[in-house]
Write a structure and sequence with these properties.
The protein is built from 11 helices and 10 strands. By secondary structure, the protein is α/β, with parallel strands linked by helices. It is globular and about 65 Å long.
């Protein structure tokens, strides 16, 4: 059976999961904190870390119970150790290390971004043969990779400012939509006209890089007008309350479409350079149905296999952490030292050409 217990606590989800050697998810438990952060319009790090402390042990107990395995049947422990909010990461990684140390089990320190890339293999989906592109689009990351295996991941493009999910969340706030912004923006966009507001595609030194900050600026001026005055005297003409429901829908659809078009543009450029046979995608933004439809159409047109996670494994979860640890074990990885630190930045996002031993 060879089950791994994994813990994920990089942001505002306290998660634990049990995944076996065939990448079958025996259990996946996620305790959300949406209600704690809703009034602030975003995640408050101190509140998040305190909530993780309260929830991590009950979540682990529930994951083991739902999987129908005892602690004695676990063969290894994994945790997401980067990237994320450092206080939140410390809770989950410390709990995982303590479990591993107490039972003398191997510990796998997992890079959250790498886990997103391979989340589509959960359930026993076979890894497509040949070179692949990898795309992670989430609230904190928009990165493009060349992928030749679980430990052979090369960064080829990344956002130079905002991630797609971050840009959509902030756009939702400008439009007066509640937290969580991305899903609410998707719903608001359904009746809208995506051509109502046009955005220019950024031209960057690396044509595979992304830039989303310009979307927010144009949307801000469209919603609130051009500010008058300077410094503390600067004032906008209006706010989102001046928008009609139809106009709000049009703007939501337009900014969402602009973000998707930039992703497709970078994928097309990468396709010409690397001739991939498959596209691995992951991250919370992938649960957006418009994103999934566009990616599926892009792959179909080029005869590229699309590997996309189930919706529950697009957002932050511990099953993807356990699944990636299982892939590493299958390639001979025996685990990491318990001294591996929690870190706020991904090694992959920093641009290392290969994943490190503790990826």
């Amino acid at each position: 059976m060879g089950c791994i217990l994994a813990i994920e606590s990089s942001c505002d989800e306290t998660a634990a999961a049990v995944v076996d050697a065939a990448l079958s998810v025996r259990s996946s438990v996620v305790a959300s904190q949406y209600e704690l952060h809703a009034e602030y319009g975003g995640v408050v790090p101190e509140i998040a870390s305190r909530a993780h402390l309260e929830r991590v042990l009950p979540v682990i107990d529930r994951a083991l119970a739902e999987a129908g395995v005892s602690a004695d049947e676990i063969v290894a422990v994994a945790a997401g150790v980067r990237p994320g909010l450092i206080g939140s990461l410390l809770v989950g990684s410390s709990a995982a290390k303590a479990f591993a140390w107490a039972r003398g089990l191997p510990f796998h320190a997992v890079d959250h971004v790498a886990a997103h890339l391979f989340a589509g293999l959960l359930g026993g989906v076979a890894m497509p043969a040949g070179r692949a592109l990898g795309l992670v689009v989430s609230g904190g990351h928009t990165s493009l990779f060349r992928v030749e295996g679980p430990r052979e991941i090369a960064l080829i493009g990344r956002t130079i400012d905002d991630a797609v999910g971050e840009a959509l969340d902030k756009s939702a706030t400008m439009l007066g939509l509640p937290h969580p912004g991305g899903p609410n923006l998707e719903r608001a966009a359904l009746p809208g006209d995506p051509s109502a507001l046009r955005f220019t595609k950024p031209v960057l030194p690396n044509p595979l890089d992304f830039s989303l900050s310009g979307l927010k600026t144009k949307l801000l001026y469209e919603v609130r007008g051009v500010p008058t005055g300077r410094g503390e005297r600067s004032r906008f003409e209006r706010d989102h309350t001046a928008l009609s429901p139809a106009r709000r829908a049009d703007l939501a659809a337009s900014v969402q479409r602009a973000a998707i078009e930039q992703v497709l543009d970078r994928l097309s450029r990468a396709y010409e350079l690397h001739a991939p046979r498959a596209l691995l995608v992951g991250g919370g933004v992938v649960s957006n149905r418009s994103v999934q439809r566009e990616l599926a159409a892009w792959c179909l047109e080029r005869d590229v296999a699309l590997v996309v996670p189930e919706p529950a494994y697009c957002v932050d979860n511990a099953a993807m952490i356990a699944g990636y640890a299982q892939l590493r074990r299958a390639h001979g990885d025996l685990g990491d030292d318990l001294s591996v630190p929690a870190e706020p930045v991904s090694h992959l996002a920093r641009g290392s050409s290969r994943t490190r031993r503790s990826a």
